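#struct-help
A.M.: can someone run this one for me? Single chain, 313 residues.
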Amino acid sequence: MIIVLHGMNTFVTKRKRDEIAASYRAKHPQGLSFFAFDEESDAQDVKTAIETVSLFEEKKLVICRNVLAGAADDEKFFLWLKARAIKEDTKNVVVFSEDRVLAEAKNKNIVWLLGKPSVVQKADIVSAGRLPAWIEQETARHHATIEHDAALYFADACGDDLWRLSHEIEKCAAYDKKITKARAQLLVPTAKEGRVFDALGALAEGNTKNAAMHFFALLKEGEDWAKMFGAVVFHFRSMVRVRSLLDLGWEKEQMHKELGMHPFALQKAMGYARGASMDTLVKTYRMLAKADEALKTGKMTAEDFFERLLLGV
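D.P.: on it. Structure tokens below:
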């Protein structure tokens, strides 16, 4: 069986991966063989995991995150998957999870992968119009309720950064199961996003000196690095989304409907995205994912992160 999770909404794909793993562990507490791979793994690693036989194995779950970037053109691997009839194999479950939209028309192997009977879920970015409803649903997961005005405040303070929104909702719900706007304003301060985006604009235009001045001035003033980091992630995620649609030949009006971005923000993102290759943007976005973990575990300081961002490493 093949499950494909893809799209720019990494929060949703991460949650879905976790739900799949938890579900299979609960159903097969004694007889589940579990393997997990990331972009540093290759097709041979996945093939070896599928071929590995355990004496007491009832089910095998293989989760591959961002492996297709290096494996999509591996004809031998896909021929092997077809010969193995992996889509019809109920004992082996292979999850391909990609932090990007898989474009069917560009690769015949991807076309096959996304075809039936594969289970496919595309994780779209939550548009501005749908964000308050998503916030209310996320609040309900914590057995709490939220006033509509409070949900609007959350959306304004955090943007479409679902990672930060989830964290802030959990924090507020732990404090009070009824979240009011006044409570949200007290516990969820708005980031100084204007200056952060000025810094990102300077960086996109190649003016690293100006970008550095903005970033380090904000840190010196005591601005929360987590909020700044969230703004950086939002910026590069927007650029990746816009660049992918530009490559597909989409017009500005189509992008506005699909992405729900403010026309001014979309125009700026289109200008920045045209000046950057998709490979560079994806590389930076993956660096951000690794930096997120390093920052949260204390393996990297905020100063180290912004230095790396400015240097492009």
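A.M.: thanks! The chain has a mean pLDDT of 85.
D.P.: also worth noting: The radius of gyration is 21 Å.
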